[in-house]
Protein backbone atom coordinates (compact mmCIF):
# COMPACT_ATOMS: atom_id res chain seq x y z
CA UNK A 1 0.00 0.00 0.00
CA UNK A 2 0.91 3.21 -0.02
CA UNK A 3 1.24 4.60 3.15
CA UNK A 4 1.80 7.97 3.53
CA UNK A 5 3.76 9.50 5.89
CA UNK A 6 2.05 8.13 8.68
CA UNK A 7 2.93 4.84 9.64
CA UNK A 8 -0.21 4.68 11.01
CA UNK A 9 -2.16 2.11 10.09
CA UNK A 10 -3.02 1.53 7.05
CA UNK A 11 -3.62 4.45 6.06
CA UNK A 12 -1.77 6.93 5.34
CA UNK A 13 -0.35 8.10 2.76
CA UNK A 14 3.05 8.06 2.07
CA UNK A 15 4.96 5.14 1.70
CA UNK A 16 3.40 1.94 1.93
CA UNK A 17 1.78 -0.93 0.63
CA UNK A 18 -1.22 -1.19 2.66
CA UNK A 19 -2.01 2.05 2.03
CA UNK A 20 -4.17 4.25 2.20
CA UNK A 21 -4.15 5.41 5.28
CA UNK A 22 -6.58 6.32 6.96
CA UNK A 23 -9.67 7.33 7.20
CA UNK A 24 -11.39 10.03 8.47
CA UNK A 25 -12.94 9.93 11.86
CA UNK A 26 -16.64 9.92 11.63
CA UNK A 27 -17.17 12.17 14.58
CA UNK A 28 -15.75 15.62 14.88
CA UNK A 29 -14.26 16.55 18.21
CA UNK A 30 -16.50 18.59 20.38
CA UNK A 31 -15.51 22.19 20.74
CA UNK A 32 -14.95 21.59 24.38
CA UNK A 33 -12.50 18.83 23.64
CA UNK A 34 -10.67 20.93 21.13
CA UNK A 35 -10.43 23.70 23.59
CA UNK A 36 -9.12 21.55 26.39
CA UNK A 37 -6.64 20.12 24.06
CA UNK A 38 -5.15 23.33 22.92
CA UNK A 39 -5.14 24.56 26.48
CA UNK A 40 -3.40 21.34 27.39
CA UNK A 41 -0.75 21.92 24.81
CA UNK A 42 -0.32 25.47 25.89
CA UNK A 43 -0.14 24.51 29.51
CA UNK A 44 2.52 22.04 28.58
CA UNK A 45 4.54 24.68 26.84
CA UNK A 46 4.25 26.86 29.86
CA UNK A 47 5.22 24.01 32.10
CA UNK A 48 1.70 23.98 33.55
CA UNK A 49 0.16 21.03 35.36
CA UNK A 50 -1.33 18.57 32.96
CA UNK A 51 -3.85 15.93 33.88
CA UNK A 52 -4.88 12.59 32.45
CA UNK A 53 -8.05 14.24 31.19
CA UNK A 54 -5.93 16.71 29.23
CA UNK A 55 -4.08 13.85 27.61
CA UNK A 56 -7.32 12.17 26.55
CA UNK A 57 -8.77 15.36 25.17
CA UNK A 58 -5.56 16.03 23.32
CA UNK A 59 -5.63 12.57 21.78
CA UNK A 60 -9.21 12.92 20.69
CA UNK A 61 -8.56 16.13 18.90
CA UNK A 62 -5.25 14.96 17.48
CA UNK A 63 -6.82 11.89 15.93
CA UNK A 64 -9.64 13.84 14.45
CA UNK A 65 -7.27 16.32 12.82
CA UNK A 66 -4.96 13.63 11.54
CA UNK A 67 -7.80 11.63 10.08
CA UNK A 68 -9.05 14.62 8.16
CA UNK A 69 -5.63 15.51 6.82
CA UNK A 70 -4.83 11.90 5.99
CA UNK A 71 -7.90 11.69 3.82
CA UNK A 72 -6.79 14.70 1.85
CA UNK A 73 -3.33 13.22 1.47
CA UNK A 74 -4.69 9.86 0.37
CA UNK A 75 -6.59 11.41 -2.50
CA UNK A 76 -3.61 13.50 -3.55
CA UNK A 77 -1.36 10.44 -3.40
CA UNK A 78 -3.79 8.36 -5.40
CA UNK A 79 -3.60 10.98 -8.13
CA UNK A 80 0.17 11.19 -7.95
CA UNK A 81 0.44 7.41 -8.28
CA UNK A 82 -2.07 6.98 -11.07
CA UNK A 83 -1.18 10.09 -13.12
CA UNK A 84 2.51 10.76 -12.64
CA UNK A 85 3.23 14.32 -13.71
CA UNK A 86 4.56 17.58 -12.34
CA UNK A 87 1.16 18.79 -11.23
CA UNK A 88 0.10 15.68 -9.38
CA UNK A 89 3.46 15.61 -7.65
CA UNK A 90 3.03 19.23 -6.69
CA UNK A 91 -0.37 18.62 -5.19
CA UNK A 92 0.78 15.50 -3.42
CA UNK A 93 3.82 17.10 -1.91
CA UNK A 94 1.75 20.00 -0.58
CA UNK A 95 -0.68 17.59 1.05
CA UNK A 96 2.20 15.54 2.36
CA UNK A 97 3.86 18.64 3.76
CA UNK A 98 0.69 19.63 5.60
CA UNK A 99 0.17 16.16 6.93
CA UNK A 100 3.76 15.76 8.09
CA UNK A 101 3.81 19.13 9.71
CA UNK A 102 0.63 18.35 11.63
CA UNK A 103 1.87 14.92 12.67
CA UNK A 104 5.19 16.39 13.84
CA UNK A 105 3.44 19.12 15.78
CA UNK A 106 1.21 16.57 17.48
CA UNK A 107 4.05 14.14 18.15
CA UNK A 108 5.97 16.90 19.86
CA UNK A 109 2.95 17.92 21.88
CA UNK A 110 2.45 14.30 22.89
CA UNK A 111 5.88 14.35 24.49
CA UNK A 112 4.59 16.88 26.99
CA UNK A 113 2.63 14.12 28.66
CA UNK A 114 5.70 11.93 29.07
CA UNK A 115 6.00 12.24 32.82
CA UNK A 116 2.33 11.96 33.63
CA UNK A 117 0.81 8.85 35.23
CA UNK A 118 -1.66 7.59 32.65
CA UNK A 119 -3.74 4.50 32.05
CA UNK A 120 -2.22 1.99 29.65
CA UNK A 121 -4.54 2.83 26.79
CA UNK A 122 -3.81 6.55 26.85
CA UNK A 123 -0.09 5.93 27.14
CA UNK A 124 -0.23 3.54 24.21
CA UNK A 125 -1.99 6.06 22.01
CA UNK A 126 0.50 8.79 22.89
CA UNK A 127 3.36 6.50 21.99
CA UNK A 128 1.73 5.58 18.71
CA UNK A 129 1.21 9.22 17.92
CA UNK A 130 4.92 9.87 18.37
CA UNK A 131 5.78 6.98 16.09
CA UNK A 132 3.19 7.64 13.47
CA UNK A 133 5.33 9.04 10.70
CA UNK A 134 7.53 6.86 8.54
CA UNK A 135 9.64 9.90 7.71
CA UNK A 136 9.39 12.56 10.40
CA UNK A 137 10.47 16.07 9.47
CA UNK A 138 12.09 18.51 11.85
CA UNK A 139 9.83 21.38 12.99
CA UNK A 140 11.42 23.79 10.49
CA UNK A 141 8.74 24.34 7.80
CA UNK A 142 11.33 24.64 5.03
CA UNK A 143 12.69 21.22 5.79
CA UNK A 144 9.19 19.77 6.00
CA UNK A 145 8.48 21.09 2.52
CA UNK A 146 11.78 19.85 1.18
CA UNK A 147 11.19 16.39 2.60
CA UNK A 148 7.73 16.21 1.07
CA UNK A 149 9.04 17.24 -2.33
CA UNK A 150 11.81 14.68 -2.23
CA UNK A 151 9.34 11.93 -1.37
CA UNK A 152 7.05 12.75 -4.26
CA UNK A 153 9.94 13.04 -6.67
CA UNK A 154 11.51 9.73 -5.71
CA UNK A 155 8.20 7.96 -6.01
CA UNK A 156 7.61 9.55 -9.42
CA UNK A 157 11.08 8.67 -10.66
CA UNK A 158 10.56 5.03 -9.81
CA UNK A 159 7.03 4.92 -11.18
CA UNK A 160 7.91 6.49 -14.51
CA UNK A 161 11.19 4.58 -14.85
CA UNK A 162 11.80 2.60 -18.01
CA UNK A 163 14.73 1.08 -19.83
CA UNK A 164 15.32 2.13 -23.42
CA UNK A 165 17.78 0.37 -25.65
CA UNK A 166 18.73 0.74 -29.33
CA UNK A 167 18.97 3.93 -31.34
CA UNK A 168 16.63 5.91 -33.56
CA UNK A 169 13.89 3.83 -35.11
CA UNK A 170 15.34 0.74 -33.50
CA UNK A 171 14.89 2.17 -30.03
CA UNK A 172 12.77 0.01 -27.78
CA UNK A 173 11.63 1.03 -24.31
CA UNK A 174 10.58 -1.47 -21.66
CA UNK A 175 8.39 -0.74 -18.67
CA UNK A 176 9.23 -2.45 -15.40
CA UNK A 177 6.19 -4.68 -15.86
CA UNK A 178 7.48 -5.82 -19.25
CA UNK A 179 10.94 -6.37 -17.89
CA UNK A 180 9.50 -8.35 -14.99
CA UNK A 181 7.78 -10.63 -17.43
CA UNK A 182 10.96 -11.17 -19.42
CA UNK A 183 12.99 -11.78 -16.27
CA UNK A 184 10.47 -14.49 -15.39
CA UNK A 185 10.34 -16.13 -18.80
CA UNK A 186 13.64 -15.65 -20.61
CA UNK A 187 16.35 -18.26 -20.18
CA UNK A 188 18.92 -16.31 -22.19
CA UNK A 189 21.59 -15.14 -19.72
CA UNK A 190 22.74 -12.28 -21.94
CA UNK A 191 19.26 -10.89 -22.35
CA UNK A 192 18.62 -11.28 -18.64
CA UNK A 193 21.83 -9.46 -17.82
CA UNK A 194 20.96 -6.64 -20.17
CA UNK A 195 17.55 -6.14 -18.54
CA UNK A 196 19.03 -6.43 -15.07
CA UNK A 197 21.60 -3.74 -15.78
CA UNK A 198 19.14 -1.66 -17.81
CA UNK A 199 16.54 -1.31 -15.06
CA UNK A 200 19.22 -0.22 -12.61
CA UNK A 201 19.84 2.91 -14.68
CA UNK A 202 16.69 4.30 -13.10
CA UNK A 203 18.25 4.80 -9.69
CA UNK A 204 21.59 6.70 -9.78
CA UNK A 205 19.76 10.05 -10.12
CA UNK A 206 17.84 9.18 -6.95
CA UNK A 207 20.95 8.96 -4.82
CA UNK A 208 21.49 12.64 -3.93
CA UNK A 209 17.78 12.97 -3.14
CA UNK A 210 17.90 9.88 -0.98
CA UNK A 211 20.93 11.12 0.93
CA UNK A 212 19.25 14.41 1.65
CA UNK A 213 16.08 12.68 2.69
CA UNK A 214 18.01 10.58 5.20
CA UNK A 215 19.57 13.73 6.66
CA UNK A 216 16.25 15.50 7.08
CA UNK A 217 14.33 12.53 8.43
CA UNK A 218 17.10 11.67 10.88
CA UNK A 219 16.93 15.21 12.20
CA UNK A 220 13.17 14.78 12.51
CA UNK A 221 13.56 11.53 14.44
CA UNK A 222 16.08 13.18 16.75
CA UNK A 223 13.72 16.04 17.53
CA UNK A 224 11.21 13.43 18.60
CA UNK A 225 13.72 11.95 21.02
CA UNK A 226 15.05 8.98 19.01
CA UNK A 227 18.77 8.52 18.42
CA UNK A 228 18.08 8.25 14.70
CA UNK A 229 15.47 7.00 12.23
CA UNK A 230 16.69 3.42 12.55
CA UNK A 231 15.76 3.37 16.23
CA UNK A 232 12.42 4.99 15.45
CA UNK A 233 11.56 2.40 12.78
CA UNK A 234 12.49 -0.45 15.09
CA UNK A 235 10.50 0.94 18.00
CA UNK A 236 7.10 0.07 16.60
CA UNK A 237 6.88 -3.54 17.73
CA UNK A 238 5.89 -3.41 21.40
CA UNK A 239 9.46 -4.13 22.47
CA UNK A 240 12.79 -2.32 22.53
CA UNK A 241 14.39 -1.43 19.20
CA UNK A 242 17.38 -3.70 19.79
CA UNK A 243 15.19 -6.56 21.00
CA UNK A 244 13.26 -6.30 17.76
CA UNK A 245 16.42 -6.53 15.65
CA UNK A 246 17.57 -9.49 17.76
CA UNK A 247 14.23 -11.25 17.28
CA UNK A 248 14.52 -10.87 13.51
CA UNK A 249 17.99 -12.45 13.61
CA UNK A 250 16.73 -15.17 15.87
CA UNK A 251 13.92 -16.10 13.47
CA UNK A 252 16.32 -15.97 10.56
CA UNK A 253 18.68 -18.40 12.29
CA UNK A 254 15.81 -20.86 12.61
CA UNK A 255 14.90 -20.84 8.94
CA UNK A 256 18.43 -20.47 7.58
CA UNK A 257 19.06 -24.22 7.22
CA UNK A 258 16.05 -24.43 4.93
CA UNK A 259 17.27 -21.47 2.88
CA UNK A 260 20.76 -22.87 2.61
CA UNK A 261 19.46 -26.24 1.45
CA UNK A 262 17.29 -24.57 -1.17
CA UNK A 263 20.13 -22.31 -2.31
CA UNK A 264 22.42 -25.32 -2.70
CA UNK A 265 19.92 -27.23 -4.81
CA UNK A 266 18.94 -24.26 -6.97
CA UNK A 267 22.58 -23.38 -7.62
CA UNK A 268 23.30 -26.94 -8.71
CA UNK A 269 20.35 -26.92 -11.12
CA UNK A 270 21.26 -23.52 -12.55
CA UNK A 271 24.82 -24.71 -12.94
CA UNK A 272 23.59 -27.76 -14.88
CA UNK A 273 21.59 -25.48 -17.10
CA UNK A 274 24.02 -22.63 -17.71
CA UNK A 275 27.46 -24.14 -17.03
CA UNK A 276 30.39 -23.15 -14.80
CA UNK A 277 31.14 -19.97 -16.72
CA UNK A 278 27.78 -18.49 -15.87
CA UNK A 279 27.02 -20.13 -12.51
CA UNK A 280 30.03 -20.89 -10.30
CA UNK A 281 29.39 -24.31 -8.80
CA UNK A 282 30.41 -23.32 -5.27
CA UNK A 283 29.93 -19.58 -5.33
CA UNK A 284 27.18 -17.05 -5.13
CA UNK A 285 24.34 -17.27 -7.62
CA UNK A 286 24.31 -14.51 -10.25
CA UNK A 287 21.28 -12.39 -9.44
CA UNK A 288 19.88 -12.19 -12.98
CA UNK A 289 19.11 -15.91 -13.31
CA UNK A 290 16.48 -16.34 -10.62
CA UNK A 291 13.36 -15.29 -12.48
CA UNK A 292 12.85 -11.99 -10.69
CA UNK A 293 14.32 -8.51 -11.11
CA UNK A 294 15.54 -8.45 -7.50
CA UNK A 295 16.12 -12.21 -7.06
CA UNK A 296 13.67 -11.94 -4.17
CA UNK A 297 11.34 -14.77 -5.15
CA UNK A 298 12.45 -17.59 -7.41
CA UNK A 299 9.25 -19.42 -8.28
CA UNK A 300 9.54 -18.43 -11.93
CA UNK A 301 12.54 -20.69 -12.43
CA UNK A 302 10.69 -23.76 -11.20
CA UNK A 303 11.09 -25.29 -14.65
CA UNK A 304 14.88 -25.12 -14.31
CA UNK A 305 14.98 -26.34 -10.73
CA UNK A 306 12.60 -29.30 -10.85
CA UNK A 307 13.81 -32.83 -11.48
CA UNK A 308 12.80 -34.44 -14.72
CA UNK A 309 10.42 -36.74 -12.94
CA UNK A 310 9.11 -34.03 -10.65
CA UNK A 311 6.08 -32.90 -12.55
CA UNK A 312 4.50 -29.81 -11.06
CA UNK A 313 1.06 -30.74 -9.84
CA UNK A 314 -0.17 -27.95 -12.06
CA UNK A 315 0.97 -24.81 -13.79
CA UNK A 316 -1.01 -21.96 -12.28
CA UNK A 317 0.10 -19.51 -14.98
CA UNK A 318 -1.38 -21.81 -17.61
CA UNK A 319 -4.54 -22.48 -15.60
CA UNK A 320 -5.18 -18.75 -15.34
CA UNK A 321 -4.45 -18.07 -18.98
CA UNK A 322 -6.46 -21.05 -20.22
CA UNK A 323 -9.46 -20.18 -18.06
CA UNK A 324 -10.09 -17.03 -20.09
CA UNK A 325 -10.31 -14.94 -16.92
CA UNK A 326 -9.82 -11.20 -17.27
CA UNK A 327 -7.64 -9.25 -14.86
CA UNK A 328 -10.74 -8.08 -13.05
CA UNK A 329 -12.02 -11.66 -12.87
CA UNK A 330 -8.84 -12.55 -11.02
CA UNK A 331 -9.82 -9.99 -8.39
CA UNK A 332 -13.38 -11.38 -8.29
CA UNK A 333 -11.98 -14.83 -7.57
CA UNK A 334 -9.90 -13.33 -4.75
CA UNK A 335 -12.92 -11.53 -3.31
CA UNK A 336 -14.90 -14.76 -3.42
CA UNK A 337 -12.33 -16.42 -1.19
CA UNK A 338 -12.89 -13.79 1.47
CA UNK A 339 -16.68 -13.86 1.18
CA UNK A 340 -16.58 -17.66 1.45
CA UNK A 341 -15.12 -17.09 4.92
CA UNK A 342 -18.00 -14.81 5.84
CA UNK A 343 -16.48 -11.41 4.98
CA UNK A 344 -18.83 -8.83 3.43
CA UNK A 345 -18.36 -8.33 -0.32
CA UNK A 346 -16.29 -5.35 -1.47
CA UNK A 347 -18.23 -2.13 -2.04
CA UNK A 348 -19.28 -1.08 -5.53
CA UNK A 349 -16.84 1.84 -5.40
CA UNK A 350 -13.98 -0.63 -5.07
CA UNK A 351 -14.81 -1.90 -8.55
CA UNK A 352 -15.34 1.58 -9.97
CA UNK A 353 -12.26 3.27 -8.54
CA UNK A 354 -9.53 0.63 -8.39
CA UNK A 355 -6.81 0.49 -11.03
CA UNK A 356 -6.59 -3.11 -12.22
CA UNK A 357 -4.52 -2.73 -15.37
CA UNK A 358 -1.88 -0.36 -16.62
CA UNK A 359 -3.39 2.61 -18.40
CA UNK A 360 -2.08 2.92 -21.95
CA UNK A 361 -1.60 6.65 -22.06
CA UNK A 362 0.29 7.68 -18.95
CA UNK A 363 2.84 6.77 -16.32
CA UNK A 364 1.56 5.20 -13.13
CA UNK A 365 3.19 3.51 -10.16
CA UNK A 366 2.60 -0.12 -11.07
CA UNK A 367 3.87 -1.57 -7.82
CA UNK A 368 0.80 -3.21 -6.28
CA UNK A 369 -0.87 -1.48 -3.36
CA UNK A 370 -4.13 -1.45 -1.42
CA UNK A 371 -5.69 1.81 -0.35
CA UNK A 372 -8.05 2.99 2.30
CA UNK A 373 -8.95 6.51 1.35
CA UNK A 374 -11.60 7.49 3.82
CA UNK A 375 -11.70 4.80 6.49
CA UNK A 376 -15.30 4.25 5.59
CA UNK A 377 -15.91 2.43 2.39
CA UNK A 378 -13.52 3.89 -0.15
CA UNK A 379 -11.05 1.03 -0.40
CA UNK A 380 -9.22 0.25 -3.63
CA UNK A 381 -6.34 -1.64 -5.12
CA UNK A 382 -3.88 -0.24 -7.57
CA UNK A 383 -2.14 -2.80 -9.74
CA UNK A 384 -1.03 -3.41 -13.30
CA UNK A 385 -2.31 -6.97 -13.27
CA UNK A 386 -0.79 -9.54 -15.57
CA UNK A 387 -2.47 -12.89 -16.05
CA UNK A 388 0.17 -14.76 -14.09
CA UNK A 389 0.36 -16.90 -10.97
CA UNK A 390 2.45 -14.19 -9.30
CA UNK A 391 -0.21 -11.57 -9.81
CA UNK A 392 -3.01 -13.95 -8.81
CA UNK A 393 -1.24 -14.36 -5.45
CA UNK A 394 -0.60 -10.61 -5.25
CA UNK A 395 -4.30 -9.92 -5.77
CA UNK A 396 -5.01 -11.99 -2.64
CA UNK A 397 -2.21 -10.16 -0.85
CA UNK A 398 -3.72 -6.78 -1.65
CA UNK A 399 -7.26 -7.85 -0.80
CA UNK A 400 -5.95 -8.99 2.58
CA UNK A 401 -4.99 -5.36 3.21
CA UNK A 402 -8.38 -4.10 2.09
CA UNK A 403 -10.42 -6.52 4.20
CA UNK A 404 -8.25 -5.67 7.21
CA UNK A 405 -8.72 -1.93 6.61
CA UNK A 406 -12.43 -2.39 6.36
CA UNK A 407 -12.87 -4.44 9.46
CA UNK A 408 -11.00 -2.08 11.78
CA UNK A 409 -12.46 1.10 10.34
CA UNK A 410 -14.48 1.89 13.48
CA UNK A 411 -11.45 1.81 15.74
CA UNK A 412 -9.96 5.16 16.81
CA UNK A 413 -7.69 6.56 14.12
CA UNK A 414 -4.45 5.47 15.75
CA UNK A 415 -5.64 1.88 15.94
CA UNK A 416 -6.60 1.64 12.28
CA UNK A 417 -3.47 -0.32 11.56
CA UNK A 418 -2.28 -3.85 11.65
CA UNK A 419 -1.40 -5.30 15.08
CA UNK A 420 2.05 -4.66 13.69
CA UNK A 421 2.93 -3.97 10.08
CA UNK A 422 3.84 -7.61 9.51
CA UNK A 423 0.28 -8.61 10.34
CA UNK A 424 -0.99 -6.35 7.59
CA UNK A 425 1.28 -8.01 5.07
CA UNK A 426 0.53 -11.52 6.27
CA UNK A 427 -3.26 -11.64 5.98
CA UNK A 428 -3.69 -11.96 2.24
CA UNK A 429 -0.64 -14.20 2.00
CA UNK A 430 -2.11 -16.53 4.63
CA UNK A 431 -5.27 -16.74 2.55
CA UNK A 432 -3.22 -17.44 -0.56
CA UNK A 433 -1.63 -20.43 1.20
CA UNK A 434 -5.08 -21.98 0.82
CA UNK A 435 -4.76 -21.83 -2.99
CA UNK A 436 -4.15 -25.56 -3.13
CA UNK A 437 -5.02 -28.05 -5.87
CA UNK A 438 -8.13 -29.04 -3.88
CA UNK A 439 -9.26 -25.40 -3.87
CA UNK A 440 -8.44 -24.89 -7.55
CA UNK A 441 -10.59 -27.88 -8.36
CA UNK A 442 -13.40 -26.56 -6.21
CA UNK A 443 -13.49 -23.29 -8.13
CA UNK A 444 -13.28 -25.05 -11.46
CA UNK A 445 -9.76 -24.06 -12.50
CA UNK A 446 -8.50 -27.64 -12.36
CA UNK A 447 -10.04 -31.00 -13.17
CA UNK A 448 -8.29 -33.47 -10.90
CA UNK A 449 -6.55 -33.10 -7.58
CA UNK A 450 -3.10 -34.66 -8.06
CA UNK A 451 -2.00 -37.45 -5.73
CA UNK A 452 0.39 -36.89 -2.84
CA UNK A 453 3.28 -38.12 -5.02
CA UNK A 454 3.18 -34.64 -6.55
CA UNK A 455 3.57 -32.87 -3.20
CA UNK A 456 7.31 -32.32 -3.48
CA UNK A 457 6.79 -30.47 -6.75
CA UNK A 458 4.15 -28.28 -5.13
CA UNK A 459 6.34 -27.60 -2.09
CA UNK A 460 9.34 -26.82 -4.27
CA UNK A 461 7.32 -24.24 -6.18
CA UNK A 462 6.14 -22.70 -2.91
CA UNK A 463 9.62 -22.72 -1.35
CA UNK A 464 11.10 -20.96 -4.36
CA UNK A 465 8.86 -18.03 -3.48
CA UNK A 466 8.43 -18.26 0.27
CA UNK A 467 11.81 -19.52 1.49
CA UNK A 468 13.93 -17.75 -1.11
CA UNK A 469 12.40 -14.46 0.01
CA UNK A 470 13.46 -14.69 3.66
CA UNK A 471 17.03 -13.30 3.51
CA UNK A 472 15.93 -10.59 1.08
CA UNK A 473 13.11 -9.66 3.48
CA UNK A 474 15.72 -9.31 6.19
CA UNK A 475 18.52 -7.50 4.38
CA UNK A 476 16.59 -4.59 2.88
CA UNK A 477 16.02 -2.95 6.24
CA UNK A 478 19.34 -4.10 7.61
CA UNK A 479 20.73 -1.84 4.90
CA UNK A 480 18.41 1.02 5.77
CA UNK A 481 19.07 0.71 9.49
CA UNK A 482 22.81 1.04 8.79
CA UNK A 483 22.19 4.01 6.53
CA UNK A 484 19.96 5.75 9.06
CA UNK A 485 22.25 5.22 12.03
CA UNK A 486 25.30 6.43 10.10
CA UNK A 487 27.16 3.13 10.10
CA UNK A 488 27.01 3.28 6.32
CA UNK A 489 27.82 6.62 4.70
CA UNK A 490 26.69 7.70 1.22
CA UNK A 491 30.10 6.85 -0.24
CA UNK A 492 29.43 3.20 0.63
CA UNK A 493 25.71 2.87 -0.05
CA UNK A 494 26.04 0.41 -2.91
CA UNK A 495 28.92 -1.54 -1.43
CA UNK A 496 26.98 -2.07 1.81
CA UNK A 497 23.90 -3.16 -0.16
CA UNK A 498 25.86 -5.82 -2.02
CA UNK A 499 27.64 -7.00 1.09
CA UNK A 500 24.24 -7.82 2.60
CA UNK A 501 22.96 -9.33 -0.64
CA UNK A 502 26.00 -11.58 -0.79
CA UNK A 503 26.15 -12.52 2.89
CA UNK A 504 22.46 -13.18 3.46
CA UNK A 505 21.21 -14.29 0.06
CA UNK A 506 24.34 -15.85 -1.37
CA UNK A 507 23.78 -14.04 -4.66
CA UNK A 508 26.03 -11.65 -6.56
CA UNK A 509 25.65 -8.92 -9.14
CA UNK A 510 26.12 -10.20 -12.69
CA UNK A 511 28.42 -7.27 -13.54
CA UNK A 512 30.73 -5.18 -11.36
CA UNK A 513 28.97 -2.46 -9.38
CA UNK A 514 30.39 0.81 -8.09
CA UNK A 515 29.26 3.78 -6.06
CA UNK A 516 28.09 5.40 -9.30
CA UNK A 517 25.27 2.85 -9.06
CA UNK A 518 22.49 3.07 -6.51
CA UNK A 519 21.00 -0.39 -6.66
CA UNK A 520 18.82 -0.05 -3.55
CA UNK A 521 16.89 2.66 -5.42
CA UNK A 522 15.87 0.17 -8.10
CA UNK A 523 13.67 -1.59 -5.55
CA UNK A 524 10.30 0.11 -5.04
CA UNK A 525 10.34 0.26 -1.26
CA UNK A 526 13.51 2.37 -1.09
CA UNK A 527 12.30 5.36 -3.14
CA UNK A 528 8.78 4.58 -1.86
CA UNK A 529 9.98 4.65 1.76
CA UNK A 530 8.03 1.59 2.75
CA UNK A 531 9.65 -0.20 5.66
CA UNK A 532 10.56 -3.74 4.68
CA UNK A 533 11.06 -5.73 7.91
CA UNK A 534 7.28 -6.20 7.77
CA UNK A 535 7.60 -8.63 4.85
CA UNK A 536 10.11 -10.76 6.69
CA UNK A 537 7.79 -10.90 9.69
CA UNK A 538 4.85 -11.67 7.43
CA UNK A 539 6.61 -14.66 5.87
CA UNK A 540 6.87 -16.21 9.33
CA UNK A 541 3.48 -15.04 10.58
CA UNK A 542 1.46 -16.17 7.57
CA UNK A 543 2.38 -19.78 8.27
CA UNK A 544 1.40 -19.36 11.91
CA UNK A 545 -1.95 -17.94 10.80
CA UNK A 546 -2.42 -20.68 8.22
CA UNK A 547 -1.71 -23.40 10.78
CA UNK A 548 -4.12 -21.85 13.29
CA UNK A 549 -6.88 -21.32 10.73
CA UNK A 550 -6.51 -24.86 9.43
CA UNK A 551 -6.88 -26.12 12.97
CA UNK A 552 -9.98 -23.97 13.44
CA UNK A 553 -11.33 -25.45 10.22
CA UNK A 554 -10.78 -28.94 11.58
CA UNK A 555 -8.40 -29.88 8.78
CA UNK A 556 -6.42 -33.00 9.63
CA UNK A 557 -3.95 -33.46 6.78
CA UNK A 558 -0.55 -31.87 6.15
CA UNK A 559 -0.44 -28.09 6.27
CA UNK A 560 0.47 -27.68 2.61
CA UNK A 561 -2.71 -29.49 1.55
CA UNK A 562 -5.03 -27.48 3.78
CA UNK A 563 -7.41 -24.94 2.33
CA UNK A 564 -9.78 -22.97 4.52
CA UNK A 565 -11.98 -21.96 1.57
CA UNK A 566 -15.66 -21.85 2.59
CA UNK A 567 -14.89 -22.38 6.24
CA UNK A 568 -16.84 -19.99 8.45
CA UNK A 569 -15.14 -21.07 11.68
CA UNK A 570 -11.74 -20.16 10.29
CA UNK A 571 -13.22 -16.93 8.92
CA UNK A 572 -14.60 -15.96 12.31
CA UNK A 573 -11.28 -16.58 13.99
CA UNK A 574 -9.50 -14.42 11.42
CA UNK A 575 -12.08 -11.63 11.64
CA UNK A 576 -11.91 -11.48 15.43
CA UNK A 577 -8.19 -10.86 15.23
CA UNK A 578 -8.38 -8.39 12.35
CA UNK A 579 -11.07 -6.33 14.04
CA UNK A 580 -8.66 -5.56 16.90
CA UNK A 581 -6.58 -3.44 14.52
CA UNK A 582 -3.70 -2.04 16.53
CA UNK A 583 -5.77 -1.56 19.68
CA UNK A 584 -3.67 -4.05 21.63
CA UNK A 585 0.02 -4.96 21.62
CA UNK A 586 0.62 -7.40 18.80
CA UNK A 587 1.19 -10.45 21.01
CA UNK A 588 -2.47 -10.13 22.08
CA UNK A 589 -3.58 -10.28 18.45
CA UNK A 590 -1.25 -13.18 17.79
CA UNK A 591 -2.74 -14.99 20.75
CA UNK A 592 -6.28 -14.31 19.54
CA UNK A 593 -5.61 -16.14 16.31
CA UNK A 594 -2.93 -18.72 17.18
CA UNK A 595 -3.01 -19.10 20.97
CA UNK A 596 0.70 -18.17 20.98
CA UNK A 597 2.13 -14.82 21.98
CA UNK A 598 5.28 -14.87 19.92
CA UNK A 599 6.65 -15.19 16.43
CA UNK A 600 7.19 -18.87 15.83
CA UNK A 601 9.07 -20.16 12.80
CA UNK A 602 8.01 -23.73 13.55
CA UNK A 603 4.92 -23.34 11.36
CA UNK A 604 6.92 -22.51 8.21
CA UNK A 605 9.41 -25.25 9.09
CA UNK A 606 6.59 -27.81 9.55
CA UNK A 607 4.97 -26.79 6.29
CA UNK A 608 8.16 -27.42 4.34
CA UNK A 609 9.33 -30.44 6.32
CA UNK A 610 8.83 -32.95 3.46
CA UNK A 611 10.77 -30.69 1.11
CA UNK A 612 13.60 -30.29 3.60
CA UNK A 613 13.99 -34.06 3.73
CA UNK A 614 14.08 -34.15 -0.08
CA UNK A 615 16.65 -31.33 -0.30
CA UNK A 616 18.93 -32.95 2.25
CA UNK A 617 18.93 -36.10 0.18
CA UNK A 618 19.62 -34.17 -3.04
CA UNK A 619 22.42 -32.14 -1.46
CA UNK A 620 24.17 -34.99 0.32
CA UNK A 621 27.16 -35.11 -2.03
CA UNK A 622 27.22 -31.42 -2.81
CA UNK A 623 29.29 -28.73 -1.23
CA UNK A 624 26.78 -26.15 -0.01
CA UNK A 625 27.27 -22.58 1.14
CA UNK A 626 29.04 -19.65 -0.53
CA UNK A 627 31.90 -18.32 1.54
O1 LIG B 1 5.36 -4.81 -1.89
C1 LIG B 1 4.73 -5.85 -1.75
C2 LIG B 1 3.24 -5.89 -1.98
C3 LIG B 1 2.58 -4.63 -1.62
S1 LIG B 1 2.57 -4.35 0.07
C4 LIG B 1 2.95 -6.15 -3.43
N1 LIG B 1 5.40 -6.98 -1.46
C5 LIG B 1 6.84 -7.02 -1.26
C6 LIG B 1 7.57 -6.78 -2.58
O2 LIG B 1 6.95 -6.81 -3.63
O3 LIG B 1 8.78 -6.56 -2.54
C7 LIG B 1 4.80 -8.29 -1.23
C8 LIG B 1 5.94 -9.23 -1.05
C9 LIG B 1 7.14 -8.40 -0.74
ZN1 LIG C 1 1.34 -5.55 1.13
Automatic annotation (TrEMBL):
It comes from the Bacteria. GO terms for biological process: proteolysis. InterPro entries: Peptidase_M2. Residues 52-79 form a coiled coil. Keywords: Coiled coil, Disulfide bond, Glycoprotein, Metal-binding, Signal, Zinc. Chloride binds at residues 237, 534. The active site is at 398 (proton acceptor 1), 398 (proton acceptor 2), 525 (proton donor 2), 525 (proton donor 1). GO terms for cellular component: membrane. Disulfide bonds join 164-173, 366-384, 550-562. Pfam families: Peptidase_M2. Zn(2+) 2 binds at residues 397, 401, 425. Zn(2+) 1 binds at residues 397, 401, 425. GO terms for molecular function: metallopeptidase activity; peptidyl-dipeptidase activity. This is Angiotensin-converting enzyme.
